[in-house]
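Task: sequence design from structure.
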C-alpha cells in the first residue's frame, strides 16, 4: 500500500471527482422531460451514494484511519467514478437517439421492448453504485466502532460486546458479497456464451460492451468483499488486544518474506507491532513479528 499521506490525498481526490460525477448525472437525468421510470429510478441510487462519499472525505480529513486508507476503498471509489462516466456516455448516446426518433421514450414505457443491452446497462450501473455505498458503509461503520473501542474508559465487557456486534455484521456482509460474486460470475459465463452464439454484429458489439461493464461490477463486488475481510480482521485484532501496522513486505524469486502473526492460532493477545519494509532477496528469508511453526525452507530448496 502507498504511504498514508499519499493515499489519503489520492482517496480524497478521487472521492471529490466521484461526488462531482454523481451530482452531474443526478442533475442530467432530472432535466430529462418525461424520463422513463427505469432511468429515473437511478436518481435514487445516485442520491443515496453521494452522502456516503461526502462522509468518507469528512472522516479522512478528521482522522487517519487504517480502515479507510486501503487500496480497496480507493478502488471502490474509482470504480464508482468510472461507472458514472461510462453511464453518462451511454445516456448521451440514448439522448441523441431521442432527437432522431421522437418515439424512443415510448419504447421505455413498455418493459418488454427494452433491449437486454439497455436494461442490463442500467442494472449494472445500479449494482456498481450500491457496491460502492456498501463498501464505504462497512469501512466507515468499522472505523467508528474501532474508535469507540479504543477508549480506555470503556469497560471490557461493553467493548467486547460492541466489537462482536460489528464482527457479526461484517460476517453477514461478507456472506452477501460472496453470494453476489457467485451470481455475477454465473451471469458473465452466460453472457460469454451469448456473445459467442450471436450472429448479428451490432448485437454482438452491444453484448461485448455489456460484458465489459459487468466486469466492472464484478470488480466493485470484489472491493466490497475485500473491505469486509479487512474490517473483520481489524475488529477481531482489536478485541484480542492486537495492534499491527505492516507495510511493504516483499520478496524476489527464490526468497521468502513474512510479517505479522504467523500460525499463532489465536492464542496471542495484547500485542502491538509496528513492522515496516520487510524484504528478502537473493535466495534469503526475512521474517518480522510473531512466527510459530513455519517452514523456513526457501522455494528453490523445496524444488530440489
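Answer:
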Amino acid at each position: 500500500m502507498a504511504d498514508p499521506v499519499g493515499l489519503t490525498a489520492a482517496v480524497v481526490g478521487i472521492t471529490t471527482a466521484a461526488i462531482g460525477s454523481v451530482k452531474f448525472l443526478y442533475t442530467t437525468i432530472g432535466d430529462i422531460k418525461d424520463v422513463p421510470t427505469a432511468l429515473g429510478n437511478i436518481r435514487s441510487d445516485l442520491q443515496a451514494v453521494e452522502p456516503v462519499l461526502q462522509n468518507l472525505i469528512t472522516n479522512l480529513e478528521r482522522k487517519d484511519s487504517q480502515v479507510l486508507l486501503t487500496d480497496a476503498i480507493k478502488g471502490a471509489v474509482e470504480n464508482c467514478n468510472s461507472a458514472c462516466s461510462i453511464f453518462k456516455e451511454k445516456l448521451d448516446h440514448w439522448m441523441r437517439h431521442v432527437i432522431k426518433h421522437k418515439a424512443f421514450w415510448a419504447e421505455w414505457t413498455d418493459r418488454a421492448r427494452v433491449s437486454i443491452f439497455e436494461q442490463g446497462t442500467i442494472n449494472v450501473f445500479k449494482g456498481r453504485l450500491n457496491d460502492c455505498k456498501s463498501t464505504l458503509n462497512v469501512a466507515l461503520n468499522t472505523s467508528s466502532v474501532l474508535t469507540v473501542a479504543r477508549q480506555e474508559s470503556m469497560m471490557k465487557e461493553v467493548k467486547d460486546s460492541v466489537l462482536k456486534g460489528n464482527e457479526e455484521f461484517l460476517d453477514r456482509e461478507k456472506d452477501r458479497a460472496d453470494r453476489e460474486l457467485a451470481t455475477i460470475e454465473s451471469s458473465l459465463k452466460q453472457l460469454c456464451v451469448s456473445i459467442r452464439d450471436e450472429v448479428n454484429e451490432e448485437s454482438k458489439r452491444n453484448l461485448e460492451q455489456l460484458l465489459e461493464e459487468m466486469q466492472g461490477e464484478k470488480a466493485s463486488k470484489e472491493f466490497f468483499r475485500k473491505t469486509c475481510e479487512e474490517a473483520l480482521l481489524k475488529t477481531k485484532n482489536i478485541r484480542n488486544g492486537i495492534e499491527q501496522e505492516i507495510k511493504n513486505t516483499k520478496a524476489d524469486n527464490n526468497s521468502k518474506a513474512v510479517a505479522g502473526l504467523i500460525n499463532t492460532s489465536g492464542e496471542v493477545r495484547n500485542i502491538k507491532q509496528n513492522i515496516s519494509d520487510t524484504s528478502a532477496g537473493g535466495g534469503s528469508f526475512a521474517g518480522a513479528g510473531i512466527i510459530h511453526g513455519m517452514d523456513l525452507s526457501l522455494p528453490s530448496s523445496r524444488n530440489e
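The chain has a mean pLDDT of 81.
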